[in-house]
Structures
1.
Amino acid sequence: MTHARTSKPYRPASVSILKSHSIFSTHQRQRVNNHLSSVLAAEAPQRPTMSPEKQETATAAVRVLGRWPSPFVIRVLIALRLKGVEYELVEEAMGNRSELLLASNPVHRKIPVLLHHGRAVSESLIIVQYVDEVWASQGPAILPADPHARAAERFWSQYVDDKFPTAIRVLRGKVAGDKDEAAAQVAAALEHLEEALVQCGRGKGYFGGDSLGYLDIALGSHVGWVRAVERMAQVCLLDEAKLPNLAAWADRFCAHPAVPDVMPHTDRFVEFSINNDGVPKAAHTNSK
């Protein structure tokens, strides 16, 4: 028969062993007991302590506050993966802003927020630029080196954020609005971006040329929802006949190694919308 052995926490032996010996005076007994206490404490196993720096890395040097369905969160995660940066995604509950989020982004109170060694960076496009600058020596550059090319990608990225988010929420049925007008707005924006792909990409596979760039991440983060609302609202937006370059780019983007793990298949977006969107509300957002 075998017997399990359980370990018990270390406890120092009693140090008042001289209490009953009247041969020693009270003062002498106290001095001896104090000495024994110090000896036993020195021999006791010490619990390792952790420096403040190691305590920080024990949680995560890089954390992202957000939710996986948000295109703004998705673009931050793609940028980090593109640079090979390890991170922790801290999921924010639906409809309930955490104390950490409110403390990290007290002005806009929105996701995503990047926490780098505890220091907060807000707004998704700003975070992508921050990632590119801080980890400049890792992975491909996200923003182009040429000032004009960099300005062009920033312009079109802002254009994406002006035209897509609210229209996609209308097509999802998340916010009230005219779905035909929303579809027309997205379709017109995609036509402009078809031309921008040729200009910015210079005939190569991505807006950034040979690799994913700033505008690829800004627009690509919406592709999952664009494909989802095509199915849900019965509209055709990424039309291969009208937008051959952009349709091929979308397939290339979704297949890039930095993308699939953070932007799931269309089915999951549709399922999320069905389960969470509910009755349409007035347009508002808690992410950017």
Note: The two ends are 64 Å apart (CA to CA).
2.
Amino acid sequence: MSRSALSVLVAVAVASRLALAQIDPADPTPLVSKTYLYPNGIPYQVDPVASAIRGPQVGYNICNSTTQNQQSECQTSIVNNINDFCIWAPPQPNSTIGDTEAYEVAWCTQDHGTRLIPAGALTGVQMLITSEYIQFAGFINQVLVNLNAEDYGGELDPHGADLRGNPIGALMYSNAIPTVGANNNTYTQVIDWNSFIGGDTFCLTMCFPSDSQTNQDNYCNNVYDRMGCAYNMPNNAQNGTFEVCEADLKIPVGTYVTNGATMTFSQPFSGDFTPPYTPVVPASSSCTTYQSAALYSGLPTVAAASTTPTGASQTGKATGTGSASAGAPTGTTSGASALGISSVAAILGTLFAVAFLS
């Protein structure tokens, strides 16, 4: 697709991105408007407002060697490259995303004052580098990062219906953001990002903050939270493969072309549905493949916890019998399956409480 044609689709998709914001009067400043220089400008907690409807931030944002352990409550994520990135996952074992989205913590592949993703948890990762964003997608043994084995998960992002984010107060930084005069020692705050985890898969996009608000709104769109990785972050991740590629830009989620006409699909708030289009995986090139042992050394070894979910409900659990999560098919151990087209069961598995859609 030409860049001019894609620009038209982006413009159309902007018009459809109307989140139902319900700003909390006790904490009216959106999380995306809270910016801090790394590391000395970061406060202990970005959102400590106890009188807010959802309560104060549970974790903390100043993370260093004193907080580096497997009980860390750090909520500052670092995303640099395929061997140095963090995901959001629950602090307690056997959790579901639907029950814990407000207080997920950072789990990382390197020391950043956070919990470390246990050895062997990551079984395939694809990193796509584009001109507007960087995208990760992959396979993970989610029990090792405190997700119940049967949870099909959902979305996490710096918005939420009250604009305080899920997790509340979560920050993200990267030294991979293209910034004039920057180098690998310069960390830039990632203002807009979104991610999914569940069903032993995950995906994450971080949008470049120097780009237009239009691009950030579309490539890190947060309102299609029931459509998972396959639609929000089309990819060719393979279980058993670890690779970094350059890639073309994706068509913004919810926007598609049929019979030459540009169409926009709006996700319903409830009920079963099937999107009227198949997501297109952008072309990629210049891929470099790695061995997991070379990427993720020194990670802790832990035993898998029981699979009985915590909490009174399993909001994030799929109601169907499908094999997909966060909108992506579960790969096989042979590495033959990719995080591609989602199933109806996958979509059903990304339900969130309506009051706080991510």
Note: The CA atoms of residues 195 and 204 lie 4 Å apart.
3.
Amino acid sequence: MIVNLFNPMLVVLTLCIEIALFCPCQNSSFSCIEGERQTLLKLKQSFEDPFHRLSSWKGNNCCIWKGVSCDETNGHVVKLNLRAPSRFSNKSFYGIISEEISFLVAPVVKSCLLELRYLEHLDLSGNDFQYSPIPQFFSSMKQLRYLNISNARFNGSVPNYLGNLTGLRVLDLSSNGQGPLWADDVKWISSLVSLQHLGTVPSMIQNMTSLRILDLSFNLFTSSIQTSFGNFENLVHLNLAANDFSGIEKGLLLILGNMCHLKSLDMSDNQLQGEEIGNYRNLSGCFGHDLETLNLDYARISGRIPDWVGMLENLKYLHLSDNQFNGTIPESCPKVLGNFPTSRL
């Protein structure tokens, strides 16, 4: 019997495997769309880049350029992360503010971004747009899911046409004093039905009760923390650090009693002088049962450490240092303090 050692199907299968192994078009090396590469080069030319942050933006494959991410199935640019380290950034729980320098500079944001029709994630935060207004063409980028232009020295009224970006899940407009932004009309925010994370000014958020993450840190707000904060019942993370808040209307338990899902609360480095957070007898609501992190460092709070701290059964990180507390540690605290990975009193 003669055995046929030549199997055509086996040859075809072998060739396919070899092509898959050596083809330069694998996921790790697919090329971007040429038109989008040209768009990114135009954007690069619009920036002054003294720190060479865009030095990798050369060659034919823009999908491997720093800050650029492409869809692995079609090669379209879907993410552009040009985030610069903030010129004013929090380096520790102690509220230390230090300067870093590595930002891009441009008089305006170039409208060539509109040519990136599949772009879903745009982060321009920490750069210097020289007090220009927020670009009107942003309103046409309806595919965006993430927009961060915080601390980028934009100036003027926050435009209501941002309400056209109905697919946004994250919007950050906070400024750290890097250019004055204000809101003449905030009704447009109600159009952002998918929004989960908003970084902005307090007057813009009173009706955004579906928010899960709210970051107002490093804005130098000087008012008291209003009772309207108690309406954010769906918040998971609330960061009010590094402002000049002067008090908490109706006390801290307004927040802890209403925000049943809150896992972290940071109010460090504020001016809550004379604000007593201490013994509340008539506790109501959920009272912070999910809270894992509470940071009140450098908040200038006075009075006794309240008994209710010992009732936060899920608390893992507690920071109360550099305040004006007096008296003894409540009896309810030691049993939970012993379970903390981190506590600073």
Note: The first helix runs from residue 8 to 22.
4.
Amino acid sequence: MPPNLNGESSSELRSERFNKSDADVTFRSSDGVLFALHKMNLNLFTGGFPSADFKVEDEVIDLPEISTVLDLLFQFVYPQQLPSLGGVEFDTVHALALAAEKYFVYSAMGVCRAHMTYLAKCGQGDTKKIVKYAAIHSYLDILDEVAAFLVSVSLEDLESSITLFPVMLQGPWARYREQWMSIYRDTRWELVMHADRCSDSDCNLYQLSSALQVSREFKPVNLQNIWDFNGMSCGKCSCSKLKEWATGVQDRIKALHKFSFFCK
């Protein structure tokens, strides 16, 4: 939700929520909105803004964040009910999370971390942005939830994904990815062997084998739901051990180490 604004011109917009007459410091968002706050609150609830004894006389401090983000952020520096992030667009939540870390707005840091964890568990939001946010701030609990969704067969994706991690986490990421790729390679080979026995184009397993051989976009994490692939049945060649094989794939996935295991 955009902040409530008042002012006589677009170049002099003021936040209605943060416009107290006794405020002693003013910030301006990147889109030109003024926020008047109290230095004492910033001193008590944050660690990245000017301290209470910092002299700012008739000066406006420019910040790079847009007004929608600052309107949320500054609500965390006053003793009041914290804003809910439910229903807030992902890009705004992401920008808020980065701003909270940047300015050390402690309560906002905790709320944003919890919300990002929720998004990761639900598979919502931009996976790469969540990974980069968590990696930069070493939030391994978030990486444990979202890392699998970043694993791709594509080498191009590998090159782009590894840059999301700081140097100290690039090795753990490569090792974490390799355990998924090992299962993918084994599964692909087992399906190729099946395809050699049954080349009927109506066979679901033959179709899946073909798809895994040509796909550069396949996500190994999708093997968790291996029974969802076209029903995973073969009426032509009567695969008596199909269920045992698919269950074995799922059991191997359940036994995989979390990302944090490789960071020890």
Note: The mean pLDDT is 82.
